[in-house]
Amino acid sequence: MKSGKAILYVFLILMVVPVFSIIGLSIKSNGSMTLGWYAAILQDENFLNALLLSTIVSIFTAILTTVISFIIGLSWFNKKQRLIVLGLVLLLGLLPPEVMAIAVSKISQAMGIQGANLFFLIWGLILYCLPFGVLIIWVRFFFIGDNLIYSAEDLGLTKLSVVLKVILPLSSSALITSLILSFLLSFNEYPRTYFLSGSYELVSEFLNGKLGSGTDNSIYAGGGIVICITLFFTFAFAVYQRFLRRGIKT
Amino acid sequence: MTYSILNKRIFTAVSILLWMPVFITAILAFFQFDGLKPTISLAGFHDLSEWVRIQEILTIAIRALIVSIVSTTVAFFISYLLIRLTTEFFQSIFLIAITLPFLANESVRVFSWQYLLSENGLLNHFLSRITLHPVTFFNGTNKWNIYFVMVITTIPFGIFLCSAALKTISGTYWKVADDIGLSVTNKLFNIILPLSKFALIISTTVIFFIAFSLSSEVNFLGGDTKLSSRNLILSLLSASKFQAIFSLGFFIMFTLGIIMLITRGLRLKLNYLKK
Q1: pLDDT confidence of A78, banded at 50, 70, 90?
Q2: How far apart are the first and last CA of chain A?
Q3: Burial state string for A193-204 with b = 16 or more CB within 10 A and e = fewer than 16
Q4: Which chain A residue lies closest to B155 (C-alpha atoms)?
Q5: What is the number of domains present in chain A?
Q6: Chain B contact set for A189 (CB, 8 A)
Q7: Measured by CB atoms within 10 angstroms of the end CB, which terminus of chain A is less buried, N or C?
Q8: Which residues of B touch A191 (CB under 8 A)?
Q9: At A215, which CATH number?
Q10: CB atoms within 10 A of CB A62
Q11: Which ipTM did the prediction report?
């Protein structure tokens, strides 16, 4: 039993710790420790612009993905239809991102739109995040009993009121999970941004280009900042889940 | 909730808009457009059927297959330990923690591994310190690094699927197995594995397609090996062979559809046999 638990701890360390090795690199300078690289990257206007743009794009993507997933969840299907919808949703997640991104860019070309790249970028990112959003919300809806909705209707609530007063509060945890996950996925996504961002530069593109060429150590600080943002949201989500469970128990 | 709140027409409208790129991929795999006039063309499939392209696709697919099998096996073992030996609290923390590498920026994650696995990397340095001799066991251009990092990247998907399946196994099975004194190996092979067959198939399939698309691992860790789906698509793109890209997309869709049908058939057969 003890060896089993030890295996789990070793596995956890193997999975999580390597991601943080870049933070070790970012505070190293000629054998001493420094935060100088962080100061340098935070003065890099290109990095800050890319970070800001990525944050804005990811916020839009997260909100839209969650709303669309909620809409798909509300049109509940019978068993056969659900399998087809699930297949289509999985398809979005399992097709190579490059193929999907090129298909989206073909649509933008066909529509003759060249300038509004951010719209198509957000579209491409929504397609990436949607499978996760739909699955999270479907799992939550599975545990909402039909009798609750029938009772609400018997009490004279309209369909819109049922959604706003019954389903929405009961799904809040799933909606928050979907928001956080979609934000992080789109914030850190590289292949789709590479094909769809056009003249804009997002943080994942900035990091990929600079890490590949290994220009100077400040890029490790850039990577460290992105990892810290991801860690912050993951930690916030873990704390939220913990409080939520405690709330349910009490 | 099995109650439909929303009009199906709204869903259909949203779906068509959303899945338009998927439909476009399927259409452009078979048609070429001269203005608005479509003509049937299989040029994309013809381009993909060149021996060099087949070799590239086979290399990527075989690598994805190996990664999916190894990843699912490790994920199942870890899920088994997780469900059997730990509390619910530890399980939720563990599952959130292992999503970190998957959520982290692809370039940063792979670069971190490159730093750890390179010749002057942290792991060789660590081993040198322990053995008091220079160690160059890990090498940044070793092709096994690609497999290793791909397995690490895809394992969380396997763990989510396998642990969900293991959690649904009724407590009675575990209790009866304990009561009749089955060994751990017997429990695993005679009870747990047959009950998790479906999750294992789904996990292997999902990981296969994810591993097929992973490319940064190859670009950062592959050394001379540059065969990845992204590089394949970029080379088709630079040769202006758009239809071949969509044909590849359609081929993947078709394969996924076939696997889903086979899995569904297997499940129906299993249910029928149970009855």
Answers
A1: low
A2: 32
A3: bbbbbeebbbbb
A4: A15
A5: 1
A6: 106
A7: C
A8: 106, 213, 215, 230
A9: 1.10.3720.10
A10: 24
A11: 0.83
